[in-house]
Amino acid sequence: MKGKIGLVVGLGIGYVLGTRAGRERYEQIKKQWLKVWNLDPVQAQVSKVQDFAKAQAAAVPQALWTGAVRVVKAARAEGTPGQRVDSTIATGKSAAEDVKRAAEETVHAAGKTAEKAAEQHDGE
Length: 124
Prior knowledge:
Mean pLDDT: 80
Distance between the termini: 25 Å
Region (Disordered): 80-124
Protein name: Protoporphyrinogen oxidase
Helix content: over 70%
């Protein structure tokens, strides 16, 4: 998906920069883009995405913080140095899995929100 978006953006930029009409054509394209961007349905979707991003922004950092606290506690736990190292490594692996899961859940939720927004836009 990233590759397709990059290709479309690259083609668009190439067209704008390579057009013989130059600045005039660029201004026409920009004017049309701004018309579309400022449409109420588009701005409604932008607002939904912004709200979602704000709601999800804390998920991964919270998982990172919680994991870091767990690792520090494991490193300070009682036992022999070898036991503490083993405990810290195991806790670190567990914390990394938690961060990975939080990131995947956030990406999945973002995808669902984008799909829902696209369906609503198509239905209008």
